[in-house]
Fold each of these.
Amino acid sequence: MLIRKPSDIPGSEITSEETYRHRRAFMVAGAGLIAVAALGLPKLLGGTTTPGTGEKLGTLKKSSFSTSEPSNSFKEISTYNNFYEFGTSKEDPARNAHTLRPRPWTLKIEGECLKPRTFSIDDLLKLAPLEERIYRMRCVEGWSMVIPWVGYPLKALLDLVQPKSTAAFVEFSTLMDPKQMPGQASRALNWPYKEGLRLDEANHPLCILGLGLYGQTLPNQNGAPVRLVVPWKYGFKGAKSIVNIRLVKSMPRTAWNDANPSEYGFYSNVNPGVDHPRWSQATERRIGEFKKRPTQMFNGYGDQVAALYAGLDLKRNF
Amino acid sequence: MSPKMRWTAIKTALWIVCLAPLGWLLFAWFVKHDLGVNPIETITHETGWWALFFLTFGLGLTPLKRFSKWGWVQRFSRPIGLFAFFYACLHLLTYIWMDQSWEWAAMLKDVVKRPFITLGFAAWLLLLLLAATSTTGWQRRLKKNWKRVHRLVYLAAMLGVIHFALRFKTLLLDWRPTAFAATVMILLLLRINWRPKPQPFST
């Protein structure tokens, strides 16, 4: 097995948590002042920053893929979630996800590969150097955030099981356990939650296995202990609390596509030119901002990922 | 207490109850400074919810009067209907101002292209018509037709319920639209089945 030590980076490179928070507080205060002055809406914008509650993940590698845009606060990221396994309102997951037991946890990788394997969460945390990836996250509902994830390329994991040449797609399954996930008692979606990617998408360096947030292990409501983060696609593509990854020959079924095939496609790349049948995708509201901003093609990651879709009609393959 | 004073007291109480949701919203906004992570969404959802609530509640008044024989119940119809319109106006204003930032072209496209928005806007237009003709003057002018026109409130409620249901990522995801739809249908059936024979001289 491959156990690599996190690469050393000088301490001067690492932004301390305190500075991190101050930057955020400064941004919030600035935004707040503008709002008060221009609109007379005191404190409509921004939230207070509270520290996370997870385990510290130590030294993190910085990534050139990270955006320099200010991150949303931990509170915003951890109290406004779509995670229907814990209820269908945005506030439900933060309230209900305490029933999830993220440890011990195993992730099984199987299917069209030479070395199928099961990883424990401790294996996963040591498998590759942990990186901070500050990504934009665009929800299909028309809002967005900037989130400082911790993780590493999914490719690092997939390479270990050696996909066969017959593997063309990857299927991700969330835990199925109504005791831990009370929302699974209702039929909101076809449980367990399934998502999928083409193998070349899964191997793209932007696509990461998410293991943390704000330098700490993931809060339950954000998909603890291990999730998928695909920043150029709508947020629901990022399967949470994953227990199974399967390399497969043909396009897998996915939870949202099952629920409403005319509204949620397999690809679900962020695309301002292809509207959701019921609402426009041309603009989005960044959480903490007042005015909507234009949505960018591939959520602004077009330079990196557009080549994956050369020759593909993105209007039909939405 | 004279009947007039009692009526004033009841009306004041009604105003307080009907304005309480707005009061709560303003309190959460300006005093508690907590409208959740997405405040504009919260304001949109709350105002829409209360418009639908008062609309549905108002529909229940006529059946309640008929079953209970409490004539005074009917006197609440107009104020409650107008409060429903008031919350619908706040809801529309939130959309125009906070959500769309006065981008008229984008909104026009929304209204034309998206049934979700079209239905909500149509419901508001109906409520506007009903609110505008809710005065005693219009009641007199329209005579018998006034009642017919004001039955459009059922249509407005149904459009409102569908508009509400369409905001969820998949239909039937949330129990509330179904609850509203069922209530409106039951209230409508109560009206239709009441007195099978038309009464030519009733007012």
Note: Residues 17-39 of chain A form the longest helix (23 residues).
Amino acid sequence: MTLTRRTVLATGLAATAAPRAWAKPRLEYGLKPVQVADGLWMLEGSTEYFNFENGGNIVNVAFAETDAGAVIFDSGPSRRYAEELRKVVTEMMPRGVAAVVNSHHHPDHFLGNQVFSDKPIHALEETKKQVVLHGDSYADNMYRLIGDWMRGTEPVPPNTMLTSNDLTIGGRSFSTVPLGGHTQADLMILDRATGTALTGDLAFLDRTPTTPDADLPRWRESLDYIASLDPKGIVPGHGSFDTEGRSLVQTRAYLDWLDGALTDAAEEGLDMVEAMQIEMPDEFAALGAQPHEFERSISHLFGDYEKAALPEVN
Amino acid sequence: MQKTLFAAFLIAATPVFAADKPNRIIDGPKVVIDDPYKTGMLGYLQKEILGDPEQIALDPRVKVLAPHSAEDSFHVPITIDAREIGDVERIALFVDYGPIPHILDYYPGEAEPWLSFRFKIDQATPVRAAVQTKDGAWHLGGAAIDAAGGGCAAPAAAYASDDWEERLGKVRARMWPNSGRVRVIVDHPMDTGLADGIPVFTIQALDFKGLDGKKMARIELHEPVNEDPTFSLRFAQGALKAPMQVSGRDNNGNEIEATIPYNGAIR
């Protein structure tokens, strides 16, 4: 090959371009709402853990059409997500966004709030308290986990506290039920018009439930309560739209198994790292984000189980 | 003229360095290890923590088991398993990156060279186990742990409660004679001295002894061990035949004293 200026240029370009693939700006979530009930849409996230590929889009967000505009349930993991969300919703509904509701204080459910800070952002009082307490460290950790997807994201607490079991916006009414167990405060919403339950992270489908703030007995009570409402459809916090109540059954079964497995491990004298190696039944090993979430749960919960298994001796 | 001078200097200087080993770094350790983690810290730690031993090498029989990512920077669980190596005298645990690298030393004595416990992590780092056999040689293993960090510079959680002083030195413990396991949790803040206005306050050592006073195992703790230190030890099956004493003291002179009942009976 004779070296012309063009070949030199071309090889030079290839050499600089090839190893810098990670710097390519692909940062778009490509949000596509799917209608799940009359006047109700869902944006389904992946069932993985946070990573640089999914940009934190591992969460379900939903919105309902009202005469005043859209009511959005949870605001997503980042500013970028929420900007796309607002654009998509505004294109569909000329009145734009009427209000936002936060189900609980975990980062993937509220870090988009800043894009909606000009609107009412409804939540339980305890959820606001937790966002104020932990918002900054959540945001820091999210920058670590998903990098540039987080650019410009600041934690913004909800600005309107829910004080009754009824929320009516633009002629559409919702039951707002304060539950808990996944976190200190989990808001469940029932869209009265369609009988659809928006459970936040009280229900997961084909994705491992997460436990950093879990209270397992309370969580199971909350699941029983939601099941007793016999909702026509369920928008779980993570996983697909559920018309058969599978998310409630599956979440309940996993929490029961987790409780039993950790009790047994502590009673047998295992330490945390050994407990992390417990073989999971196939049905739970197949859930999204395993075995990572099980390992995390050991870190969150095992301390209490081992204290119960080790008596005081002095 | 300048060029010639420079060349002359090179010729004169070269033999001085050439006499040394090619990998020898000035002020480096006696043994240069091809570190799989390439942190640039290992040589320094060999000298500072292990006393620059002449016999030290990587050894796959030293297993360090830990989660890839620290979920809780204040309580990172870890298991060290060196049971494939016989005659273990001491196991030193340390990290490459952190304000206080040395975590603890374990002298297994009658116990198996295996230990589970938790420590505070300040940033993503490899954690190393250096296992010294009775012939003086060191065997090195490790694991990399990713972390959000900040585990070393925060006040102990105990200070949020009113009764931490009453709880100080309380021991929870249990023995599993069939599987040879012993587990203890000692209530103690384990202050690193890195949180504002809180001086170092740590348990210095815990000794495990038979009722006859015979030494069975010893742990020497440093600041990075977690608040309310939690240890799991293993003994050969059938080796645990009687209650065991655990005793120690902290750097303020508070004594820790407890008897771990035989047969694991609860209350």
Note: The mean pLDDT of chain B is 90.
